Amino acid sequence: MKIIRYQDKKGNVGHAAFQADGTAFTLAGNIFDSRKVTTDKADVAKLLAPIEPTTIICIGLNYRRHAQETNAKIPQFPVVFFKGLNTVQHPGEPIQLPTHLKSDEVDYECELAVVIGKQCKNVRA
Questions:
Q1: 24: how many CB neighbours lie within 10 A of its CB?
Q2: Which residues contact 4 (CB under 8 A, 6 or more apart)?
Q3: Which of 74-112 are b and which e, b meaning 16 or more Cβ less than 10 Å from the residue's Cβ?
Q4: Most exposed residue of 28, 49, 77, 79, measured as fewest CB within 10 angstroms of its CB?
Q5: Distance between CA atoms of residues 24 and 16, nearest Å
Q6: Among 10, 3, 9, which Cα is nearest to 24's?
Q7: How far is residue 33's CA from residue 15's CA, in Å, rounded to a whole number?
Q8: What pLDDT, in 10s, does the model give residues 49-77?
């Protein structure tokens, strides 16, 4: 099941189960553990980022080749940093570049987000 987060024409935000034919049915319950697909069609006016994060924790220079390609010193431990909530990008939205920077060069990155629905510690791979 592909779950989407969306905004309807009235501005309400919800989650839905996206179907192969392009329709979506609203979800009832908690999307992380007790969700149920309803028979109500979702009024999807705009796709939103999959979740609304409260914190974005990032790990930098976590593999050697990335450090080497940027000529950065390979750290003894991964670099931990935070990104603001304003860095979340909705699907299909234009990427706005800051105009006050010294360079207008843009680099791309691929990010991986993992959502674990329960509290955990020392989880095995």
A1: 23
A2: 15, 16, 17, 18, 24, 44, 47, 50
A3: eeeeeeeeeeeeeeeeeeeeeeeeeeeeeeeeeeeeeee
A4: 77
A5: 6
A6: 3
A7: 13
A8: 887 877 888 888 777 787 788 788 888 88
